[in-house]
Amino acid sequence: MTVLLVKFQITGIQNTDSFLRASVTLYVTCQIVVRLGYFVGLGKSVFTPVGSIVFLGMCIDSQKQAFLVPKEKLEKFAILRESILAKKSVSLKVLQRFMGKCISFMLAVPCTRLYISDICIALSENYRSVSFSIVITGTLKDEVIFGRFVDNWDGFLPWKLEKHKVVKLKTDSSNYKWARKFETNDINLEFGDYWPADVLDSHIIVKEARAIILSLKSVKNNYILDLRIDILCDCKSFIDEWNGQGS
After folding, report:
1. Which PANTHER family does this one have (predicted)?
2. pLDDT-derived band of residue 157, with 50, 70 and 90 as boundaries?
3. pTM, 2 dp
């Protein structure tokens, strides 16, 4: 057995400064652990308790219990976004970088992939031409502009509780009406309504999607707030569109 005896002196610190002495003691302890062969990244270690710490590119906030996008990451995203908007066209590589940054926000910004559907389409149509320039116009440009909302967005995506709550949400849509049925162990709710005039001419896939959204909104505050929901839908075309997310 090898006995490691460590003796250190802290100079220039008064005995009353217990907080600083504790910090130095903790640092020395980590140094000993590292020298014994354990892998501890001292450069990334925090020796005092904090409520938010950056890990793997995201802020982990223990009070909000959520991931937050670091300020530096938002600034780099804004620079790239505005540089794209300042040009009439950009290379495939630049647009891929923008899409990658958007996807990297998934832990902190809800439904990130829904904001870049046209970007995904543009990349999938031109992925073989690395030197090809993609024109930034129309809905593609609108999606890039929409990315500005994160500059002033103070919301967050809370962590989900590790529990499984079983509910049944059934939705259906016709050309003129939508309906939903919500069931739990002790609750059975049925509701429906007619489509407004501005929706009547929409495709059935759009109506199926609207029926799901309206159904979720009708029960979210009392029954399914801050939960992951599995939805069963009998419209295969809608399911294919949802799974594709524009890609």
Report:
1. REVERSE TRANSCRIPTASE DOMAIN-CONTAINING PROTEIN (PTHR33050), RIBONUCLEASE H (PTHR33050:SF7)
2. confident
3. 0.57
